[in-house]
Specification:
The protein is mainly α. The protein is built from 19 helices and six strands. The protein folds into two domains: about 250 residues, no CATH class; about 220 residues, no CATH class. Helices cover about 80% and strands about 5% of the residues. The N and C termini lie close together (about 10 Å).
């Protein structure tokens, strides 16, 4: 079992790495074409909506509630499992498209009644060597229009994620891990194809609308790709099967608490996005007072998310995804279950802690290398880097939260993560509304998310320890101490090397600083970890 878990974690991590690299390509193009202006604000808000549904329902609630039940039934009665899986996909698809119809209706109403105000596109455009004055964009209406165009991606990608749960239960991780690459390639192709449209406000709107339409095309390709692999599983659709219906109803009933438990980070991020989107959707004031955030806050927030999600997705979520089927299968074997959870925590800490510290230290050059150029200025780099530092401090806890939540679901306990998650939502909103009025401004949203994640991590592990005897023995803290010491050595090395690197603000200087500091960090951490024998042992 351990060999399988580790192998699948490496496969998912490698494919996720490719996905993130192609994602960086798309973000690099977007930032240089649109900068941190209202058009990118509107797009970031619009794409956040189908993304939220994907993470909550497709990859979160339904998958987390469905996979343990399907895996258990597949062991006991494979034919009943195939009937349950097919019916679950059919019913879920109907629900997803019904939700889509309701959301689209709401978006049409919001678009029709969007406030009539314009935001300057800053900075001025440089097209073909000519300076074009700042553009004015009615960002609220554009945001709702883009959301209407991209929302049909939601049911498609949710079906892909749910189909992926079936494949994962069969230890087939490649198809779903590779599916996001299709979306990123579609983004890149559409963004490059739309460059000839640039030159005025109408051209920029046409460009971003083309990118939005490409999302739907990518969703169709992802469905075809995943369903092609699903055919080999041999699902049997029989709407008259009472046993299959019973399992479907129980899964749907269990999915609501799972949605909050698994998706608290996504829900917190969504709340953050709504607060950051206020200048774009509602204007520069709130109840007659000046709003503390300015246009571009949502785009800057989204850019920082892309960077911190890179190590989180490649390592943290990959570990949680790969270990979930193994947890579900060993839920009745306490020693094996505890061993898998500990192994996941050790791996998440071993990678997540240095990732947190390292990304915090290289936030400025990392943002500059990823986004700076053309319409994205050095001031924009500093703005995104401030947000990234807030997110970065808790990469390790984001990873462990995913592991702890899935451990509870494998034990058929959905209420505990739900109660903890609800508390974190309340705390996040309170911190958000406090910190944005401080000197942190939009960076306060990131620090709020990080603080909530750390609290959630500690609480979940404490509660899980009560459920699983021997889960966290004293020896585990000794194991975790070694990566912490290695991380401290890495941080000192990065700071020392950084003091000798150029401090310029141009892209080449930022690249040199990023390569030098990051290289020093990787080498020093690996050397220290090897010296301390800090690498997690196989379970």
């Amino acid at each position: 079992m351990s060999k399988s878990f580790e192998h699948h974690a490496r496969v998912v991590g490698a494919l996720t790495l490719i996905s993130r690299v192609t994602g960086f390509a798309r973000e690099a193009i977007f930032s240089r074409v649109f900068g941190l202006g209202p058009i990118m604000d509107a797009f970031s808000f619009a794409f956040m909506m189908p993304n939220l549904f994907r993470r909550l329902f497709g990859e979160g609630a339904l998958s987390a509630a469905f996979l343990p039940r399907f895996a258990k039934l597949d062991r006991e009665d494979p034919e009943s499992a195939r009937r349950f899986g097919a019916l679950m996909l059919a019913v879920s698809g109907g629900i997803f498209f019904a939700v889509l119809a309701v959301v689209e209706l709401i978006l049409v109403v919001l678009w029709w009644n969007a406030p009539e105000y314009a935001v300057d596109f800053h900075p001025p455009l440089h097209v073909g060597g000519a300076l074009i004055p700042s553009l004015s964009v009615q960002s609220a209406a554009l945001g709702y229009l883009l959301a209407m165009l991209m929302m049909p991606y939601m049911p498609l990608v949710c079906l892909v994620a749910l189909s992926g749960a079936v494949l994962q239960s069969k230890d087939r991780f490649v198809v779903t891990a590779a599916a996001p690459i299709i979306l990123n390639i579609a983004f890149v192709v559409a963004a490059l194809a739309g460059i000839p449209f640039l030159g005025d406000e109408a051209g920029h709107r046409a460009h971003i609308l083309l990118v939005a339409v490409s999302v739907l095309g990518a969703g169709v390709l992802q469905v075809l790709w995943t369903f092609g692999a699903l055919r080999k599983v041999g699902l049997i659709l029989d709407h008259r099967d009472p046993i299959a219906w019973m399992h479907v109803k129980k899964t749907l009933a269990e999915s609501l608490p799972v949605m909050f438990g698994v998706g608290v980070l996504q829900l917190n991020t969504f709340v953050d996005g709504l607060i950051a989107s206020w200048p774009t959707l509602m204007g520069p004031t709130i109840f007659g007072f000046q709003y503390p955030l300015q246009a571009g806050a949502m785009a800057a927030f989204a850019g920082a998310q892309r960077l911190y999600e890179f190590p989180l997705a490649v390592f943290g979520i990959s570990i949680a995804t790969a270990m979930f089927p193994a947890l579900a299968r060993s839920s009745s074997q306490p020693e094996a279950f505890a061993s898998i959870v500990r192994s996941g925590i050790e791996r998440a800490w071993f990678v997540g802690l240095p990732a947190s510290v390292g990304l915090f230290l290289v936030a400025e050059p990392a943002c500059g290398v990823a986004f700076q150029g053309s319409e994205f200025t050095y001031d924009d780099t500093l703005r995104v880097a401030a947000i990234l530092r807030g997110f970065a401090i808790a990469i390790w806890s984001y990873s462990i939260v995913h592991i702890a939540a899935r451990a509870f679901y494998a034990l058929d306990d959905r209420q505990t993560p739900l109660r903890v998650a609800l508390g974190m939502l309340v705390l996040n909103v309170a911190l958000n509304l406090t910190l944005i009025f401080s000197s942190l401004r939009e960076a306060g949203l990131a620090y709020s998310t990080a603080i909530c994640s750390v609290v959630q991590c500690v609480v979940l592990l404490a509660l899980l320890r009560r459920r699983v005897p021997g889960l966290i023995p004293p020896s585990l803290f000794v194991v975790l101490l070694k990566p912490a010491v290695a991380t401290l050595g890495m941080a000192l090395c990065v700071i020392a090397v950084g003091s000798f690197l150029p401090s310029g603000t141009d892209w080449n200087s930022l690249l040199l600083r990023f390569i030098g500091a990051s290289g020093a960090g990787v080498v020093s951490y690996c050397a220290a970890a090897a010296l301390l024998r800090a690498r997690p042992k196989s379970i």
